[in-house]
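Our consortium's second objective concerns turning raw sequence data into structural hypotheses that experimental partners can test. To show how far this objective has progressed, the report includes one record in full. It was chosen at random from the queue rather than selected for favorable results. The single chain below, 80 residues long, was entered without modification.
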Amino acid sequence: MSRTLCQCMLVSERDVLATIRAGARTVDEVGERCDAGTGCGSCRGGIELLIQQEVRRRARAPVPEALLAQLGLFGPSGDD
């Protein structure tokens, strides 16, 4: 079970992270999409930390070989 991140709106940390992974890039965007951080505001710092963690996680994620092949950055180069 995920802990409640936003006490005012009863939004869990899991729901905030799902909102970030669905495309929210700022604390205000998270609030618009799931109401977290729109009450007293005490959770806004925690939301910002989750956004930063997700940005770092994405930066470390390897690019799938199939995508690289589609981009022409991996596989046969045709330079014979």
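The partners drew two points from this record. Strands lie at 4-6, 11-12. Helices lie at 13-21, 27-34, 44-60, 65-71. Both points have been shared with the crystallography group to help prioritize constructs.
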